[in-house]
């Protein structure tokens, strides 16, 4: 609750005023009714409820009371929540031009205003093409062995230790992100980059007051240092004139015409985004496998079969191996569905929009509720049950949206799945683990996580 309180107050302080102005100016234009719902308390709205209780309960209770389209007020802004697959497709794909991605201004400053997340149109399409080029299978299949080395080293460092799963997975995901974005340069500058990123992270949800001594000020200083390190890497690469297939190489292509500032903003943003989401998924997988021994056994048998087929130097994993893990892949899919790391995404109406007989005023936030779609019994029978076998059949269209949908869907999903599969191969074939302390609770915030980051004790199989 303490995190939720601080988080709500911080966000409301710097986005409630512009949102309130948009709310007031749109009032005179209403011809259609607003969706049903509650706006909660002044300024704070219903943010406390959202971040202080089980998100499944919060969203389900709202939908049960008001229906699949409803209004609310969270994070300082009036919002419309939508929870049907058809509505999500409408906002994210069919009429995406009417709903732009939106983020608090402080987040844009912290990650970089030129980053891909904060744009749409031609500039966004250009950046997305460059990211996809670096993260497409043809590119990332060449770094499987490097990812495997990172995974093996990570697991070896946990042996016999009581570790915080989420924190350790963040380190693993960060190291893989550096590899995919900066190649070998990521290894050379790893400690400098890690130090800056960890300071940046601490201030991500801090009050956006840029005064000496504040977390936000420290984060902005760390962000400047990150840009300087990246500038050094860019300068060296230009002098060497070597071709690189990593993301930085894609951004630096002569034909792309990006400035150094644009490159730095996008590198910083991609690494930041790639870390916490992947680490969250891995943490939930560890929890669900421990709680479902029959599923764990199936995964371990699948991975053991792959390991036994190899001999000598061929013991290293290949891209083809990772494409021969159907049971493990379904575990990942089911984890993405049940955990729903991103409960929703933010869009903003760029003009007054008529939707299902209701008005969505210009400037209002629109939230497709991924979690609600994933937990609807109409889409997935017994939705609270962890059952990877349900993905033996493809889900109904627009009901499984772990990476979003449309032009703003996650361009790094292939890399994320690859690093998860590689780590699970070694985790399930070489180790056993037990959860320590309470593990049934959930901690809430930007991501829903197992209680206390899921402490576990890892040991080698005998």
CATH superfamily of the domain at 113-285 and 402-461: Cytochrome P450
CATH class type of the domain at 113-285 and 402-461: Mainly Alpha
Sheet-strand content, in percent, reads 5-15%
Q: Main β-sheet: number of strands, strand sense, barrel status?
A: 5 strands, mixed
CATH architecture of the domain at 113-285 and 402-461: Orthogonal Bundle
What is the radius of gyration computed over CA atoms, rounded to a whole number of angstroms? 22 Å
Please estimate the helix content.
40-55%
CA-to-CA gap between the ends?
42 Å
**Structural class label:** alpha+beta
- Overall morphology: globular
Report mean pLDDT, rounded to a whole number: 87
Low-confidence stretches: 1-18, 20-28
Number of strands: 12
Q: What strand line-up does the widest sheet have? A: 1-2-8-5-3
CATH fold naming of the domain at 113-285 and 402-461: Cytochrome p450
Question: Total number of helical segments?
Answer: 19
GO biological process, one term: sterol metabolic process
Cofactor: heme
Enzyme class: oxidoreductase
GO cellular component, one term: membrane
């Amino acid at each position: 609750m303490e995190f939720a309180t601080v988080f709500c107050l911080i966000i409301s302080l710097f986005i409630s005023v512009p949102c309130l102005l948009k709310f007031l100016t749109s009032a005179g234009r209403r011809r259609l009714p607003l969706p049903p719902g509650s706006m909660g308390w002044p300024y704070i709205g219903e943010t406390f409820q959202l971040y202080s209780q089980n998100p499944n309960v919060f969203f389900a209770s709202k939908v049960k009371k008001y229906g699949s389209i409803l209004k609310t007020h969270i994070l300082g802004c009036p919002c419309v929540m939508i929870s049907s697959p058809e509505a999500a497709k409408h906002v994210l794909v069919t009429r995406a031009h009417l709903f732009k991605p939106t983020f608090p201004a402080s987040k844009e400053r912290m990650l970089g205003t030129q980053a891909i997340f904060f744009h749409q149109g031609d500039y966004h399409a250009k950046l997305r093409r460059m990211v996809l080029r670096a993260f497409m299978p043809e590119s990332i299949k060449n770094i499987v062995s490097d990812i495997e080395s990172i995974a093996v080293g990570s697991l070896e460092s946990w042996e016999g230790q009581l570790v915080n799963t989420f924190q350790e997975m963040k380190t693993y995901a960060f190291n893989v992100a550096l590899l995919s974005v900066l190649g070998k340069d990521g290894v050379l500058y790893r400690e400098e980059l890690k130090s800056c990123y960890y300071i940046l992270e601490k201030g991500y949800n801090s009050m956006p007051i840029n005064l000496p001594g504040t977390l936000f000020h420290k984060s902005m200083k760390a962000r400047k240092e990150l840009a300087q390190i990246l500038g050094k890497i860019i300068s060296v690469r230009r002098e060497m004139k070597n071709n690189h297939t990593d993301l930085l190489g894609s951004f630096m292509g002569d034909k792309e015409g990006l400035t150094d500032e644009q490159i730095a903003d996008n590198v910083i943003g991609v690494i930041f985004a790639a870390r916490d989401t992947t680490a969250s998924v891995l943490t939930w997988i560890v929890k669900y496998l421990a709680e479902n021994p029959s599923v764990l056994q199936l995964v371990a048998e699948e991975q053991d079969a792959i390991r036994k087929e190899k001999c000598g130097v061929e013991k290293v994993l290949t891209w083809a191996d990772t494409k021969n893990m159907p049971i493990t892949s379904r575990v990942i899919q089911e984890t993405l569905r049940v955990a729903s790391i991103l409960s929703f995404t933010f869009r903003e109406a760029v003009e007054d929009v008529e939707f299902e007989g209701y008005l969505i005023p210009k400037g209002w936030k629109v939230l497709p509720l991924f979690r609600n779609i994933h937990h609807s019994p109409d889409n997935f029978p017994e939705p609270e049950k962890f059952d990877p076998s349900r993905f033996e059949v493809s889900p109904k269209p627009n009901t499984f949206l772990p990476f979003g949908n449309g032009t703003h869907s996650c361009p790094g999903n292939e890399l994320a799945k690859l690093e998860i599969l590689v780590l699970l191969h070694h985790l399930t074939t070489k180790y056993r683990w037990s959860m320590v302390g309470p593990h049934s609770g959930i901690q809430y915030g930007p991501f829903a996580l197992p209680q206390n980051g899921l402490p576990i004790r890892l040991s080698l199989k005998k």
